[in-house]
Design a protein that fits this description.
The protein has about 160 residues and is α+β, with helices and mostly antiparallel strands. The chain is built from four helices and five strands; from the N terminus they run E-H-H-H-E-E-E-E-H. The chain starts with 10 loop residues before the first strand and ends in a 32-residue tail after the last helix.
Length: about 160
């Protein structure tokens, strides 16, 4: 038996080379994973960590990406954070002078923050209900010949003649 795989539509945004370690960013990304967008914004606004501001920018960018796509027609408040993660970026290696002519290493770490949004199950159900409730318009029949339509040369002032039988 073959497994049926449905493609899940998501929208994502990514910030690269953020000047923070991935370990510090993961502490905040774990707080918002799986939450709705308004709830995630609230958590990030009240977080004391400096990286929360960068994650909030990426979340705002992902919501803007979702709202600007004309094929999706998603509202930002109806979305939820599907996945969010922080990968390690390149490390800048610097040195600091130490005692007796030695050198101490300084590692300036960076990370790449990715946020993926998807519509919440409630929003999907509401959209399906709205689509089912909407009346379907019948398609207009195509006219194949030009002779099928009688042409009239009436002006706007003249009223059409009434036929009496």
């Amino acid at each position: 038996m073959a497994a049926v795989e449905t493609e899940k539509r998501t929208v994502r945004a990514q910030a690269k080379y953020v000047h923070s370690s991935a370990r510090k960013a993961r502490l905040v990304t774990d707080l918002i994973r799986g939450r709705s967008v308004p709830e995630a914004r609230t958590i990030l606004a009240f977080s004391d960590r400096a990286i929360a501001r960068d994650i909030e920018r990426v979340l705002h960018s992902a919501v803007s990406n979702a709202e600007s796509r004309p094929d999706l027609l998603w509202n930002g408040d109806d979305l939820r954070v599907e996945t969010v993660y922080a990968d390690e970026g390149p490390t800048l290696k610097r040195h600091r002078a130490r005692a007796r002519g030695r050198v101490g290493p300084i590692m300036k770490r960076t990370c790449h923050i990715t946020v993926e949004l998807a519509p919440s199950p409630a929003a999907i159900a509401a959209a399906a209900a709205a689509a089912a409730a909407a009346p379907k318009r019948p398609r207009a029949a195509k006219k194949t010949t030009a002779a099928a339509e009688p042409t009239t040369t009436e002006t706007a002032d003249e009223a059409p003649a009434e036929e009496t039988t």
